[in-house]
Structure formats: structure tokens, C-alpha cells
Specification:
Strand content: over 45%
Order of helices and strands: EHEEEEEHEEEEHEEEEEHHEEE
CATH class of the largest domain: Alpha Beta
Structural class: alpha+beta
Radius of gyration: 19 Å
Largest sheet: 9 strands, antiparallel
Length: 246
């Protein structure tokens, strides 16, 4: 059993956190909220989403897994008007997800969870450098890098966080000093990443109004985590590094 009401705009933002990396996911529903994790097809990036029951206006669930086509759900939610409440209900007889918006009712077919790619355990990473910044700043840095090259460096040097990218003809460096950041811990961290995944992640609207914790090391994965909806929702991305040739 699953039945819930939630602000349509919040649900759309939450779905987008996942959908920027994957088209479908298994959503685990429990009495205290929902949780989902997924890995994009190349195994280079993982996303985790958690939504507490109190993120919803109403929430009833007795546990279970739902296989969801995130792209289809996102398109349906795009029809919501400002201020709309989205009503969700699992129709167990037809195994469809009923979505009601103002004047619109969708019956969305669910996927068999067993057919959706299994996700490995979320890795436990001890990353030595931690940068706490405004989400809008990391989005701006990645946008600035997008037309320069295919790979970018995230690093810390001289008490400053930097993003650096070098293409065939151009080079770009974006720097935020310790005073311009919310917090900075660690030094001399540097890892290279595919710009493609970070560019996709930066499209998440939930990032823009949040404080983002970015954790990096030397040729380590990066972990980017943030809260939204007054702390009732959490998003996390882990991106594998591209190891540079000697």
C-alpha cells in the first residue's frame, strides 16, 4: 500500500535529482519515507535520494519496491500548475501508479523492479578534503567549463577551491577562496572527472537553492551531497575519477 500527497513542484525537483543520471529506478517505500539509489549505465556515477515522510503533505505506506520510469513521471509532473498538490496512489490491482494533478489523472505503468539494473552498495569513502559551498556556485563553475573541454579538475590549492578545464585551444580556471566558501577543510586535493556527468548533475534544480558539501581527494571519487525542502530530502552523487596518464 502506498498513498501520498506532496507539492508537485517538490516532487518534480526530487525526481529530477535522479533523472539527470538515469531514466528508471527502483524506489523503496517504507513507513518513514522513500529511498532510491541508481547507477548510470557506464558505472561512472551513482545517485542516492532520500525523502522523509514529513516532506509529504500526507503519507501512508506499508513497504515495498516500485519500479518507476522517471522520465515519464517527470513529463507528467511538468503539467502541474504552480501550487498544485500531486496525489499519488499505488493501484495494486492494475500495478499502476495513479497521479492526480489539478484536473488531470494519470495511470502510469510501473516497471518490474527485477528488470531494473541492480545497484551495488553505496561505497564508504573517507575523503580528505571537504568544501561546503552554495549550490549555485558549483553550477556556475560547471557551466563555465562546459564549452572548453571534456574533462575537468576539482581541487584545493592555497586555501582555495578551484575547477580547471583545458581543451584543445582554450583553458578555464574557476576559483573560490576560503572566504568565499561556507567552509573548507583539507589541502592539496586534486582529481580529474568527466565533465559529462558533472554537467548532468549540475542541471538538478534542487542544487541551486541548497548548500552543497563536496568531498574530494587525490585521484579519488568525488561525493556531492545536499539537503532540500527544509532538510526533509537529501540527495547525493558519487562520481568516479578519471585517472590521468603519467
Amino acid at each position: 500500500m502506498f498513498k501520498a500527497g506532496i507539492r508537485a513542484e517538490l516532487l518534480k525537483d526530487a525526481v529530477e535529482v535522479m533523472n539527470v543520471l538515469v531514466d528508471e529506478a527502483v524506489i523503496h517505500v517504507a513507513g518513514d519515507g522513500i529511498q532510491s539509489k541508481a547507477v548510470e549505465p557506464a558505472n561512472a556515477a551513482m545517485v542516492v535520494l532520500e525523502m522523509e515522510a514529513k516532506a509529504f503533505e500526507t503519507f501512508e505506506a506499508d513497504g515495498g519496491d516500485l519500479g518507476v520510469d522517471l522520465t515519464r513521471l517527470s513529463k507528467a509532473l511538468s503539467m502541474a500548475r504552480k501550487g498544485d498538490l500531486a496525489m499519488l496512489e499505488l493501484e495494486e490491482d492494475t500495478h499502476k501508479l495513479r497521479l492526480e494533478l489539478s484536473g488531470i489523472t494519470y495511470h502510469l505503468s510501473l516497471l518490474d523492479p527485477s528488470t531494473i539494473r541492480q545497484v551495488p552498495k553505496v561505497p564508504e569513502l573517507e575523503l580528505p578534503a571537504r568544501i561546503l559551498m552554495r549550490g549555485a556556485d558549483i553550477q556556475r563553475a560547471i557551466r563555465a567549463a562546459s564549452d572548453v573541454g571534456s574533462y575537468l579538475v576539482l581541487g584545493i590549492e592555497d586555501d582555495a577551491f578551484y575547477v580547471e578545464v583545458e581543451g584543445d585551444t582554450d583553458k578555464m580556471r574557476f576559483t573560490l577562496t576560503k572566504d568565499e566558501l561556507i567552509d573548507l577543510k583539507g589541502s592539496n586535493a586534486r582529481s580529474l572527472f568527466s565533465l559529462e556527468y558533472l554537467r548532468d548533475i549540475s542541471k538538478s534544480k534542487a542544487l541551486s537553492g541548497s548548500d552543497v558539501l563536496l568531498e574530494i581527494g587525490i585521484d579519488y571519487p568525488s561525493r556531492l551531497s545536499f539537503d532540500f525542502a527544509d532538510g526533509t530530502c537529501k540527495g547525493m552523487y558519487i562520481v568516479a575519477p578519471r585517472v590521468e596518464s603519467a
